[in-house]
Amino acid sequence: MPEGDVVLLTARRLDAALRGRPLDRAELRWPTAFEVDLVGRTVREVAMYGKHLLTRLDDDRTLRTHLRMDGTWRIARTGSAQARARDPRVRAVLGNATWTCVGTDLGMLDVVRTRDERTLLGDLGPDLLADGFDAPVRTAGLEVAVGRILAADAAGGFRGEHDPAAGAPLVELLLSQRGVAGIGTIYAAESLFAHRLWPWTPARAIGPDGVRDVLRTARRLELAAVATGPQTQERFVHGREGRPCRVCGTAVQVGVANRSPYERPVFWCPVCQAPGQPTGARSSGAP
Ligand SMILES: [Zn+2]
């Protein structure tokens, strides 16, 4: 499943190919949008929010797409074989004289007025990769996200699925997208490992400073992946079940975050991230 780093890279590539140019071709192969005509509109920009891609047009409409599990946007030279987009899994084609962008296996597709974009994004938290996310002001995305995560912990999770007296597991609060948008299973696992936190530690155990540190780490890891390309970063736990922890040598385990039908895998080291040690070696600011 694509995480924020992949979505940000995709948005940048689409923006470079489409921004400021009129669409000569616009096919939305989607039941609720196939009659929408975007040909002739100029693309103002392609932005991202969480895992949503927002293609904004000069007539104040936005094409929102979402990569969900397997979606991709590929960019081909207009006129090339790839640009024909004959694959039945293609859901959207946006082309100008030079470039043709082909969206395959997209998980969501809608066209809305740009001012109504927010209604499509639901109750998403601040975007982890947004410029200024960690600005040192109370209104920055980071501070808003810390507040949302701790409030959800106090309520027993974003869906209230845990006992409020015990709090909600950090890994679930990170994955929900409602505290902060843009963290998936890879960066949730890697960030918790970086702070030596048991994934099911309730957020309250590390407090606002601890949550802030974890979010800063997730942002740093994702932006590093954006800089060097996804899949190029060394992973400590994610996808390494049964293999020796790079720090202590213990076999990495995989557990489950969330309850049915929202289960997600979470990789962790049972020694470095032992339960009951929320003030682990590298977590700072813990109570
Ligand atoms: Zn370990």
Task: Estimate the mean pLDDT confidence.
Answer: 93
Bound molecules: zinc ion
Main sheet: strand order? 1-6-7-5
Biggest beta-sheet profile: 4 strands, antiparallel
Succession of helices and strands: HEEEEEEEEHHHHHEE
The percent range for strand residues is: 15-25%
- Give the beta-strand count: 10
Radius of gyration: 20 Å
How many angstroms separate the termini? Answer: 34 Å
The general outline is globular
Helix content percent band: 25-40%
pLDDT under 50 segments (min length 5)?
A: 278-287
Description:
It is a single chain. The chain has 287 residues and is of the alpha+beta class. Helices cover 25% and strands 20% of the residues. α5 packs across α6. It is globular. It starts with a helix and ends in a 19-residue tail after the last strand. The structure holds zinc ion (ZN). The site of zinc ion has 7 residues, from loops.
Structural features:
single chain; 287 residues; alpha+beta; 4-stranded antiparallel sheet; 6 helices; globular; disordered C terminus; binds zinc ion
Task: Explain the layout of strands and helices.
Layout lengths: L3 H15 L6 E4 L14 E7 L2 E6 L3 E6 L5 E6 L12 E6 L3 E6 L3 E6 L3 H5 L19 H14 L15 H6 L9 H10 L12 H22 L24 E5 L6 E5 L19
Antiparallel strand pairs: 1-6, 2-3, 3-4, 4-8, 5-7, 6-7, 9-10
Bound molecules: zinc ion.
The site of zinc ion (ZN) has 7 residues, from loops.
